[in-house]
Amino acid sequence: MNIFGFGRRRSPRQPRIRSRRRSVSIADLVPSPDETDARPDFRLVALGGFFAILFGFLVLRLFTLQIVDAQSIKAAATATQVRVVPLEAPRGEITDRSATILVGNQVSQEIVLSRLEASQHPAVVGQVAALTNQTPAQVQAILNNAKYDPYQPAPIQTNASAATIQFLQEHPEQFPGVSVQETTSRTYPQGGTSGTHVLGYVGAISPTQLAENKGKGYSQASAYGKSGIEQFYQSPLRGTNGSQSIEVNAQGQVAGVVSQTNPIPGDTVVLNLDLGLQQTLQTVLEQQILADRQSVDKRSGKVPPAPNGAAIVMDPRSGAILAMASYPTYDLAQFVGGITQANLNGILGSGALNNYAISGLYTPGSTFKMITATAALQKGLISAGQYVNDTGTFTVPSCIAGGAGCVFLDDEAGGVGEVNMAGALTASSDYYFYNLGYLFAAQTTKYGKQPIQDVAAQYGLGQASGIDLLGGSVGRVDSAIERQKLHASAPKAFPNTTWYQGDNIEMAFGQGATAVTPLEMAIAYSTFLNGGTRYAPEVAAGLVSSSGELIRQYPPRVTGHVALTPAISDPILQGLLGVVQSPNGTAYETFKQYAHFNEATFSVGGKTGTASNSPGQEPNSWFVGFGPNPNPQYVIVCVIDQGGYGASAAAPVVAQTFNWLATNPVGPVKFPTASSPATTTSPTTNPPAK
């Protein structure tokens, strides 16, 4: 036996028997026609229905696009190709009352650079920077500034010199995308220091101003008035912008101008200001302040610092502002084309941006005595002819220690003796008005809690003036209520909330916490001098269109009344005239020195004010003058902060201003017309009285 199986033969392999597989055809799966009822194929019907619905939607959409929405789609397609950019309107002019242009426009050359060209030729940024004395970073910052329209070239330099422009024209290949275009900017034909604070300046619109004027067509590149008339009358001065439709290709390049609507220049604002009077007032105010800083106050032995001051000339018959000056001042031309940071810092540091005529708050001192006198005569507290013995020292009867104290001293040592109402105003008797303050405080049941404050409010003190200038302050007249308000707003600065008889005495002659603006005092005296009608001060006289059509005149606006019978006003007026004309008057010697007009034909009166400040400080110097009498046309107010005695510092400013008015009376307002347009040539004037 072969155990390994080697050599064993296998049985022959038998063939496998397979059963035959049946094939399957489509006929086996689908019934034959004779086996089922005939019917359409459901799936084919569904498919056909789907395509029918789809076709229906397509037809509806085509109908909508081609018929219903055709116009809007066409406009949208056009918008993707055409860009509308605004064309800034030239600002309107500002003139004085004789149609002399104070603020106009000048055409200057501006170097601009295309953003697209700058991106394609980066080297041009450095080249144009060197040409315009800037750094490449500065030029790039201008290109990146979002306030400029992306489809307009960016302004690189305004007021380009003729030499720079000539170089560009001779070497255009070096400056791809750089061109020169005309632009307008503010100009000051009478000098940028004439009426500075009244006129104001223009700058780029701020984000706040842009938000406040949403929907009015302003852009981030728009010019906007920042102060003065430029700010208050921004809307009419702005004019109506035009527009330019430019075609832009797919690469963002400007292909051409499709259409253009020219802008309409702004309206001309005609002011009540008289240029010659304005320049005179500014000059004498500045000269007096500078001289005051070099003079020794004979009373204190100190040199007044006189850090600032203001003066106003108002027509008491209408409230028209004929001149307004504030010192320190600045040159408006510095803001044209953008002010340098160094110049701006200097202006801000000096306080020159402040218009102290409307925003300065000063203790009024004896100029307030006219208000107290009015209240006393209205209430019957004292008769105008009653005499009071001014001994120089007023002791409050039955005084309870506290408040402002029990003993009040005259500014004039020794007093002025027996005086009535007129004499007390002429000599500025403090004692007389101490007594009035005491009598009112001692009889509140009979005369009310604040009779003087009520009359002051009627005269406009502590009230919004309504002047067409922004940034003004509202003064305050000291009272128990006012002290509570002051303490609530600034507890450390105003710790005292009580009200004693002594406080009422101080208030009666313009001291204590009373503080008013020069404008408020001008309104008060104008109200008294015209017989009791309080007018809102008005800087602008009217608007004239760029075509010479008178659009609007601003008539006098009555804001209040003061009851002034002859029995009340006559003795007060007599006392105010005596201030200048009587040898006992506090400004008599000053006007003898500085006034050179004929007082027989040009009669003036006034009131001095020497208002105490904090201990160690020089007093505020005030003077209010008016004339010519008996029907005054001018009220002149001057105040010099810490300037010293009223007759020494402020009164000379008023006297010298009257020298000008005596020979240069203010004429009626002249509105420019198409046949007689505004001019840069000022009228001929006469020398002041000498």
Give a topology summary:
Layout (H helix, E strand, L loop, with lengths): L25 H4 L12 H27 L1 H10 L2 E6 L6 E2 L5 E13 L1 H6 L2 H9 L4 H9 L9 E4 L4 H9 L7 E10 L8 H4 L2 E3 L2 H6 L10 E3 L2 H5 L1 H5 L3 E7 L5 E8 L6 E4 L3 H18 L16 E6 L6 E7 L13 H10 L5 H4 L9 H11 L8 E3 L2 E3 L11 E3 L7 E3 L1 H7 L2 H13 L1 H4 L3 H9 L20 H10 L11 H8 L9 H12 L3 E3 L4 E5 L5 E4 L4 E4 L4 H16 L6 H7 L8 E9 L8 E10 L4 E7 L5 H18 L27
Parallel strand pairs: 2-10
Antiparallel strand pairs: 1-8, 2-3, 3-4, 3-5, 6-7, 8-9, 10-18, 11-12, 11-23, 13-16, 14-15, 17-20, 18-19, 21-22, 22-23
Membrane topology: Single-pass membrane protein
Subcellular location: Cell membrane; Membrane
GO biological process, one term: peptidoglycan biosynthetic process
Q: Can you walk me through this structure?
A:
Strands 2, 3, 4, 5, 10, 18 and 19 form a seven-stranded mixed beta sheet that branches. The chain is an alpha+beta fold. The protein folds into two domains: 84-266, Penicillin-binding protein 2a (Domain 2) (Alpha-Beta Complex); 275-341 and 359-663, DD-peptidase/beta-lactamase superfamily (Beta-lactamase), CATH 3.40.710.10. It is built from 25 helices and 23 strands. The model is unreliable at 1-30 (pLDDT under 50).
CATH topology of the largest domain: Beta-lactamase
Distance between the termini: 168 Å
Mean pLDDT: 88
For this structure, what is the CATH class of the largest domain?
Alpha Beta
